[in-house]
């Protein structure tokens, strides 16, 4: 019972914190009007669906390969999105390269698809407004994919104007950003699992090269990458060996691995936030 209770409590808490974040994004003062909390539901439902889809992708892939895994643990937080994400914990080793590809890639691919849907729906509800500069201006960076989505959904944005994202589109943007961060081919991130399954011992060099790249981005673009690089060093940049090293991965698994890194390139945002 305990294995269900804690994930359920955290899930419910995160629903409330994401509702709170969604309401604040709409300019609602919840300290004066707490009953309007429910108005944050477009963002809350969107971000929770994306995160849950990502983690359940990992969970069901783990089950399919008889790897023990916990249910998703959501992390409620007093942040602009109301959460620090979610994770599942592996309780037994991943045995094969095929399992490593499936478990590593399924979560990001599911999260990517859900984020893509949220972006398209949310952009159709977004507004184009005059661009004003001020001390409290907060802007989001664009990945290759998000730029294309804006162009095909809203057309060319005139000079001096910008897009005011609907909260559903913002949730989709966050989903794409989280997907790219998870697909970094470093350590035991999802991208690290995939890189190890595809390239074996070359993971050692790929992981360290990418870590250096992220640290450099932190120096020249966005300081948050430095924090992420330090966290990755703390978590470890190496990958534990697997028990069964198949001589050759199937073509379908190699395609999934390559597709995952294409998604990474399309969703990666060098400067995610501009203040």
Entry keywords:
9 helices, mainly alpha, single chain, 275 residues
- Number-wise, the strands total 6
Largest sheet: 2 strands, antiparallel
Strand order of the largest sheet: 1-2
The shape, in one word, is globular
State Rg. 19 Å
Termini separation (Å)?
A: 45 Å
Low-confidence residue ranges: none
Mean pLDDT: 93
N-to-C order of helices and strands:
HHEEHEEHEHHHHHE
Name the structural class: mainly alpha
Helix content: 55-70%
The number of helical elements comes to 9
How many structural units, i.e. domains? 1
Percent of residues in β-strands: 5-15%
Describe this structure in words.
This protein is mainly alpha-helical. The protein has one domain. Helix content is 58%, strand content 8%. It is built from nine helices and six strands. It has helices at 2-25, 41-64, 97-124, 144-154, 167-182, 190-199, 203-220, 224-235, 251-267; strands at 73-76, 83-87, 127-130, 139-140, 161-164, 273-274. The strands form three sheets. A two-stranded antiparallel ribbon has the order 1-2. Strand 1 and strand 2 form a beta hairpin. Helix 1 (2-25) packs antiparallel against helix 2 (41-64). The longest helix is centred in the middle third of the chain and has 28 residues, at 97-124. The protein is globular.
């Amino acid at each position: 019972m305990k294995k269900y209770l804690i994930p359920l409590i955290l899930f419910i808490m995160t629903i409330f914190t994401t509702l709170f974040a969604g309401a604040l994004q709409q300019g609602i003062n919840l300290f004066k009007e707490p009953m309007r909390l429910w108005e944050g539901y477009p963002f809350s439902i969107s971000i929770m669906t994306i995160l849950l889809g990502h983690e359940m992708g990992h969970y069901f892939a783990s089950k399919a390969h008889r790897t023990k895994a916990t249910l998703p643990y959501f992390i409620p937080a007093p942040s602009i999105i109301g959460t620090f994400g979610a994770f599942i914990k592996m309780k037994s080793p991943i045995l094969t390269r095929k399992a490593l590809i499936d478990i590593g890639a399924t979560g990001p691919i599911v999260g990517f698809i859900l984020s893509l849907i949220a972006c398209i729906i949310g952009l159709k509800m977004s507004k184009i407004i005059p661009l004003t500069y001020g001390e409290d201006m907060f802007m989001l960076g664009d990945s290759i994919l998000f730029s294309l989505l804006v162009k095909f959904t809203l057309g060319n944005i005139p000079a001096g104007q910008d897009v005011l994202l609907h909260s559903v589109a913002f949730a989709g943007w966050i989903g794409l950003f989280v997907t790219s961060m998870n697909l970094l081919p470093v350590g035991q991130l999802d991208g690290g699992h995939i890189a190890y399954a595809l390239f074996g011992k070359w993971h050692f060099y790929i992981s360290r090269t990418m870590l250096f790249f992220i640290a450099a981005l932190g120096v020249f673009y966005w300081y948050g990458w430095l924090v992420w690089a330090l966290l990755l060093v703390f978590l470890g940049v190496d990958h534990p060996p697997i028990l069964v090293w198949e001589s050759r991965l199937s073509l379908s698994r190699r395609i999934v691995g390559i597709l995952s890194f294409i998604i990474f390139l399309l969703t990666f945002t060098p400067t995610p936030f501009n203040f």
